[in-house]
Amino acid sequence: MATYQALYRKYRPQTFDDVSGQMAVTQTLKTQLVSGRMSHAYLFTGSRGTGKTSCAKILAKAVNCLNPDNGNPCNCCSACRAIDSGSCMDVLEIDAASNNGVDNVRDLRDDAVYSPSQVKMRVYIIDEVHMLSISAFNALLKIIEEPPEHLLFILATTELHKVPATILSRCQRFSFRRISQEDIAARLQYVAYQENIDLDDGAARVIARLADGGMRDGLSLLDQCASATTGELTAERVYACLGIAGEQKCGELLGYITAHDTKNALELFNRLYTEGKDLSALLDELACLIRDLLVMKTAGNAGITMLSGVASDQEVLMLTKALTSAELVRMMNLIQTTLAGFTRNASRRMDAELCILEMCQPELSLDAKALNARLTRLEDQIKSGAITVAAVPQKKAASAVDDFDDDRPPMPDDSDAPPGEDGSMMPPPPPQSDGPIGFWSDLVSAVRKELRPPGSGFFTNSPQAPVRGVLRGNRLELHCSNKFIAESIDKPEILETVARKAGAMLGQPVRVFIVDLTAKPAGNPRMEQLMKFGMEHSDIVKIKNN
After folding, report:
1. What is the CATH number of the domain that holds 279?
2. Could you tell me the end-to-end alpha-carbon distance of the chain, in angstroms, rounded to an integer?
3. pTM above 0.70, yes or no
4. Are 30 and 150 in the same domain?
5. Across-strand partners of 66?
6. What's the domain count of the chain?
7. How many CB atoms within 10 Å of residue 123?
8. Taking 90 as the threshold, does the pLDDT of residue 29 lie above it?
9. Of the ranges 190-194, 328-332, 458-462, which one carries the lowest mean pLDDT score?
10. Which domain holds residue 438?
11. In a domain, 2, yes or no
């Protein structure tokens, strides 16, 4: 009985024309082969499963082929058959991950000087070259820079940043891009037809999406799913075989999260967990769906080409209307943090449940991103008319003195007021007023010009000024923020200057009072009687509270 061969090995490309999704690389190599302008060292870079090793083997056959066809090897001559079977001693494929020492590279360098015995050129294919040590790279430098005419180096790596610049400068570099989902799905359909596998179009798209740009991963997934089921291979069977939730279940779960339906979201998650779905795959699918929503939310119709294919266009459009960009970003961060913690925590189920709970109820978190998400959602609801804001009744215009109503001690009424110069009682103060517009600002400027420090420093126009003036008819109250300020400006020269400047500005005598806002009120509801000091001989009156 013949030994079964994995699909990715059985259907490895044999010519440059068979390579999918790397037209820029294959066309350049074919042109060089036809024109004879070959380099002595090549460096193939790119993610896994994109065709680096396959192209390296095709190139090794093409430079030694006896009957090349427009740059492609014929795969029929003795050289091509020997290379394909692995019996050609002049074409060596070396795994740098297990042969990364300087001694291995020295042996390679000593053998490379000998002429090939079976084919025209000796070819060294060094896979995962970034795994070589620094000393091994240094030993390789000289022979890569000036190799014999019969020698060709082909280096392949998935981590270009680990290759020294001295090696990069000696090679022609070809970057292999991720293969598109359409190309992977087409190749899967071709392989399925050759293997008599009934592959549904939806299943091919699902496998192509899970392959994440790698053809080898796609063929391996097809091999796994085809061997696990009989009959038609549908998307649902792919989900069941690979242990993932699928597009519909992820969309349903995100719908519950969007509606803040914690109960149904946790019930759906528990059902998927009971069915044996992989938690990492579930959260990864959910992250891909949220990423598609975010792309559609920010890029609009132009973002359709950037979608990963987790959700259909209608589902994406419906959910983008219900979620804000800030909410989507917060969900993405939560999922990424949870996935990163899976490697450190033993209870993955608990971590995943907490992640879903926080996504459903953003009010549980008080970090900046959660608060921003809630605010943006509220703003969007107000803009759309889902929430209306009731009009706030207009309050009667109040003067600046209203800011101090809660703290200012009660002013004395008629019975508490001291007698006037003729012995009659003082009339009650008129309603509170700021006086003429700009009165206090002008008074502060005038007082500061005449007073000297430190007295002038207490009079400012800033919102946090230590002294605020309130004019009540011909009485000017100097509201002091604390006892120290009140005692500091309780000086005859300061009070006389304020009274004189205010009287000049208003055109009438002004009496000045000092009010300490931090003083405790008297035992009765009224303040203490105005002190009689200076009342008989001056227009300056001071108020002090015990």
Report:
1. 1.20.272.10
2. 110
3. no
4. yes
5. none
6. 4
7. 25
8. yes
9. 458-462
10. 402-413+431-546
11. no
